[in-house]
Amino acid sequence: MRVAFRTIGCRLNQAETARIAAQFEAVGYEIVHNTDDADICIIHGCAVTEVAEKKCARLARSLKQGKRQPIVVLAGCIAEVGSKKLLSSSEADLSIGQADKFSIPGILATRLGLDTKAAHSTESDILTPKFFTTRALIPVQDGCNFRCSYCIVPEARGNPASRASVEILQEAERLADAGYREVVLTGANIGCYTDSGLSLLHLLEKIESIHGIERIRLSSIELSTIEADIATYMRSSEKLCRYLHIPLQSGSDRILTSMRRRYDTTAYRRAIEQILANNTPVGLGTDVIVGFPGEDHAAFAETVSFVKSLPFSNLHVFRYSKRPGTVAAEMPNHIQEQEKKNRSNTVMALGQELKRTFAAQFTGKSVSLLVEKVSDKGLASGWTGEYVEAAIYGEDLNANQIITFEPTSLSDTILQGEAPSK
Questions:
Q1: How far apart are CA 161 and CA 159, in angstroms?
Q2: Choice among 12-26, 105-119, 214-228, 314-328 with the minimum mean pLDDT
Q3: How buried is residue 304: exposed, middle or buried, by Cβ count under 10 Å (0-12/13-18/19+)?
Q4: How far is residue 311's CA from residue 317's CA, in Å, rounded to a whole number?
Q5: Longest C-alpha distance within the chain, in Å?
Q6: Domain that holds residue 399
Q7: Three-class SS of residue 247?
Q8: CATH number for 188
């Protein structure tokens, strides 16, 4: 049978989808990319925002109402905390939560009357995921107990739980053997990683020794975990990418307190300055939530001012989304949707400006590009270690090459140049 996957949500979701796909492949399913060709469609969905939830339900409904009408499974956070009304409206055949999402082949085998023993794979059966192009995602932990007032993740994913380091390193070695040159470590709160006294920093050191892995990238890391240790390690590491994504959420101390974040703007600024000290240039990404309950115009202005004051290179902007069951959902002074949209547009425009400013400093300087795709016209595109988008023209360029070149121009936020002659 043929199975297709659609992932909505974070990098952790994407990494877990690849693992689920590998399980299906290990027991004989054919993985297809086009849902029109699939007998089964797995939607690995997100519940962090209302927009994501509705997108999952809408996709499931469109698949069930299409010509092929495959078996549709909603899996992950959307199935764990989505309302009964939402799940029912999706018309999905099955909703499978966090505890069972890595047993979907067996669950489907039972439903379809197949040999259930043949449909259960073990960790040793799992093949190297083929869902990735050039950057491979490795989940290192799951869950979070920070319990920010707006966040549904603790309910959706539970308390922090780390994967065994041996298992992670074996996966990294398999990926290296399969030709992947960059790996991204991801999780719900990766700074909390621990395994028998082994921290995220120790894990980085071990992955750095794996032959074939040339780049290591970290997904989002929370302030107050181990960001300072990571920044120190970055200065001497030959493989850790010079990019850190550290969520801010608000530039107003009053709103940060209401959000139940574990820092104020002074602590955040101090941490960023420490990261940049003797360690530039470093790409800095962050998350910003606009329209949080009680965020008046003055608080929003504080956020804009604070973001402008730091050399961010990448902003992820979210409109506050009311999540039933969270503390923030019961707070007074919710912001109108149109005002949230206006504020989001303001911060996103600022983000583009900051991204251009950061990228511009690399023109005329040597950068390293991991090629992710090559067009028919010979234009190779991908990302630098600092997470700046780049594109080069040249001969005999292929995906998964790492090319060092000097950008000659900047097109909007994209570095451009020619591949060095051989």
A1: 6
A2: 105-119
A3: middle
A4: 16
A5: 64
A6: 367-418
A7: coil
A8: 3.30.750.210
